[in-house]
Task: inverse folding
């Protein structure tokens, strides 16, 4: 067997360990990250450069996910061998990515521990509860040439990037919002706020976003003359891990943009956890605020990873935006490799 080094998350530390997870616990969306050969990697790097070279015959000659997989992924026989090995341990195949960057599967903790010769424990790190392997997994040496590692042999979630604003009120003498404490925020409130006594928050509306980001269209208060770019004809993909009500986004657009177009909504695996719904609404509403003519396509899944994967595989968005993050040093070797493979594939498909 070959040990896949660097595949224990940094958060899975002894001081947070709550002991072994019940063997019957089911883990889904685990992924074997596949690796191209050195020759394929060199060819991919060359092709990516040619895609942006106007003198090259390959300039903007975008690939489909299937073409990417055929050119830069493992051979059919190698993929079949990996799938057969997974299934021989009782693990259930979910999908082989069309770009052949990974193989998604699921199984019980007992099956995963037996297949990868590791142990899976529960952790509580500063209030974040998750499960994770505690030792590097291993695989048969015969598969090592095409497998980089095992990603998401844990349930650690990336963090949303939005930061809630503090309480504020308009100072008429200064002509701007100033921070206030809860005790002074009672009483009458201006329009476009939400909340209840002692906890009012000011909305950032579409025109605010357009002005702050200096968009080249009339929603920007500082836009003068010239061609107005609204995103017409462009599709923006958004990744998330919580559900939304498309009608809520439509209400926002109707009030602040004058149209009530709903975003396309793809819930990959029926996620219902609303913890990060605020992030989803910020992303879908404000992307439409700076590009009011664009189509917004929201992809969501329980693990975020499946949403990203689906957006790239569908290959219908021109731009993909993701506002979640995690420290690269905190991720495993396989997880970093998976992220890099997504963005390389997206670039070859013409997705910004």
Result:
């Amino acid at each position: 067997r070959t040990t896949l080094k660097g595949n224990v998350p940094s958060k899975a530390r002894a001081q947070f360990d709550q002991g072994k997870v019940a063997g019957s616990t089911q883990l889904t969306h685990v992924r074997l990250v596949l690796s191209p050969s050195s020759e394929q990697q060199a060819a991919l790097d060359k092709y990516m450069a040619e895609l942006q070279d106007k003198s090259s015959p390959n300039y903007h000659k975008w690939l489909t996910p299937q073409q990417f997989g055929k050119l830069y992924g493992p051979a059919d026989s190698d993929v079949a061998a990996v799938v057969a090995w997974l299934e021989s341990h009782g693990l259930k195949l979910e999908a082989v990515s069309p770009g052949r960057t990974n193989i998604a599967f699921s199984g019980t903790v007992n099956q995963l521990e037996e297949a990868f010769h590791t142990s899976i424990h529960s952790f509580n790190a500063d209030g974040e509860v998750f499960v994770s392997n505690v030792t590097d997994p291993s695989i048969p040496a015969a598969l090592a040439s095409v497998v980089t590692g095992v990603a998401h042999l844990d349930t650690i979630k990336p963090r949303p990037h939005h930061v809630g604003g503090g309480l504020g009120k308009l100072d008429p003498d200064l002509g701007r919002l100033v921070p206030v404490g809860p005790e002074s925020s009672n009483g009458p409130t201006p329009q476009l706020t939400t909340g209840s006594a002692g906890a009012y928050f000011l909305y950032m509306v579409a025109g605010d976003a357009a002005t702050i980001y200096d968009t080249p269209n009339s929603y920007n208060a500082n836009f003068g003359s010239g061609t107005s770019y609204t995103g017409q004809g462009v599709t923006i993909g958004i990744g998330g891990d919580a559900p939304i009500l498309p009608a809520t986004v439509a209400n926002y657009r109707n009030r602040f943009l004058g149209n009530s177009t709903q975003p396309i909504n793809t819930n990959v695996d029926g996620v219902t956890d609303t913890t990060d719904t605020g992030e989803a609404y910020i992303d879908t509403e404000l992307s439409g605020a700076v590009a009011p003519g664009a189509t917004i396509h929201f992809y969501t899944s329980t693990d975020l990873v499946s949403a990203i994967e689906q957006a790239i595989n569908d290959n219908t968005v021109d731009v993909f935006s993701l506002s979640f993050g995690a420290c690269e040093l905190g991720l495993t070797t396989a997880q970093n490799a998976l992220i890099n493979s997504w963005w390389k594939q997206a670039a070859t498909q013409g997705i910004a």
